[in-house]
Amino acid sequence: MLKQTFHCQRTRVYVLNGPNLNLLGTREPEIYGRATLKDIEKATAARAKRHGLKIVFRQSNHEGELVDWIHEALTKGCGVIINAGAYSHTSIALHDALKALDKPIIEVHLSNPKRREAFRHHSYVSEAAKGVIFGLGSTGYLLAVEAIAELVGAGTDLK
Ligand code: CA2
Predict the structure, then answer these.
(1) 118 CA to middle of ligand 1, Å?
(2) Closest alpha carbon to 37 in 53, 15, 52, 54
């Protein structure tokens, strides 16, 4: 079977984080774990390095800023890992921006929204994503890097 790979001009992977994720590690550890966003950034960058990929790691509490970064990834990135936080469940703007991106997109959530309140069960991001990783805490970001590396053929002559 022919494996689907995405042609990748650059080695930059955007890791975008939405509202309130800057609070990680300070509250609700029973839901989101004890790692801070800085811890996740370091671990994600280290995992990406193994594959010859570089991480652009950002967090914003503002929907439009996240849209702008997705547009930036359009020209400067080779894939997007996104935990859009609560905007996952509300934002058609993020959905549209992601739909315009012809690069692999992996959606990550620390918790498993399907096991939580009904308003978290639908994600506009999922409809634009190649794959989704839910409920595995910060490990989800590392698995997302592995998925992107595989999809773009990083570290192989498909790059
Ligand atoms: O599980 C996830 O990663 C979520 O994207 C986290 C969002 C939530 O709205 C999504 O449904 C699922 C919330 C992030 C809030 O993060 C906090 C961290 C510490 C303390 C308070 C909020």
Answers:
(1) 15
(2) 15
If you take atom 18 of ligand 1, which residue's CA is the nearest one? 24
Taking the C-alpha atoms of residue 91 and residue 69, their distance in angstroms, rounded to an integer, is 15
Q: pTM of this prediction?
A: 0.93
Alpha-carbon span 15 to 17, nearest angstrom? 7
Q: Which amino acid is at 28?
A: E
Q: Which of 14, 87, 109, 141 is catalytic?
A: 109
Selection from 1, 16, 2 nearest residue 158 by Cα? 2
7 tagged catalytic: no
Q: Is the CB of 23 under 6 A from ligand 1?
A: yes
**Catalytic status, residue 109:** yes
Select from 15, 16, 17, 21 the residue to mutate for testing ligand 1; criterion: most ligand atoms less than 8 Å from CB: 21
pLDDT (tens digit, 9 = 90+) per residue, 59-93?
Answer: 999 999 999 999 999 999 999 999 999 999 999 99
- Tens of pLDDT, residue by residue over 106-155, are 999 999 999 999 999 999 999 999 999 999 999 999 999 999 999 999 87
3-state secondary structure string, 48-110?
Answer: HHHCCCEEEEEECCCHHHHHHHHHHHHHHCCEEEEECHHHHHCCHHHHHHHHCCCCCEEEEEC
